[in-house]
Design a protein that fits this description.
The protein has a domain of 67 residues. 45% of the residues lie in helices and 12% in strands. It has four helices and four strands; from the N terminus they run ααβαβββα. It has a two-stranded parallel ribbon. The longest helix has 20 residues.
């Protein structure tokens, strides 16, 4: 199986999280465990393998708290393409709120 993604980005993200966690737990005399673990981690269906397997494995290896739940969503498509900032086919949330309200 050939992977289409680069794993080092995930290891770097874990290092940043671990660095943040280390600073907070060593400098603060309080339990920040609840600040590190996500209650719900929201992600798109195209990255579920990395957030649901690799990221969890890295957190477990570092003995860091795991997210309690993964919320995986599909894509909103515009002209049969998934919505993307790089394609410029996104919807402005401020314009939506102005027009339709919260």
């Amino acid at each position: 199986m050939i992977l289409k993604h680069t794993i080092y980005v995930w290891v770097e993200a874990l290092c940043k999280l671990f660095d943040w966690y280390w600073v907070w737990t060593t400098e603060c005399a309080r339990n920040v465990q609840s600040l590190v673990a996500a209650d719900v981690q929201v992600l798109g269906k195209d990255i579920i393998r990395f957030h649901g397997v690799y990221w969890i494995a890295l957190l477990m290896a570092a003995e860091l708290p795991l997210p309690k739940q993964l919320l995986v969503h599909g894509w909103i498509k515009v002209n049969e393409q998934k919505m993307s900032k790089s394609l410029g086919n996104v919807v402005d949330p401020i314009a939506l709120q102005t027009t339709y309200g919260c």
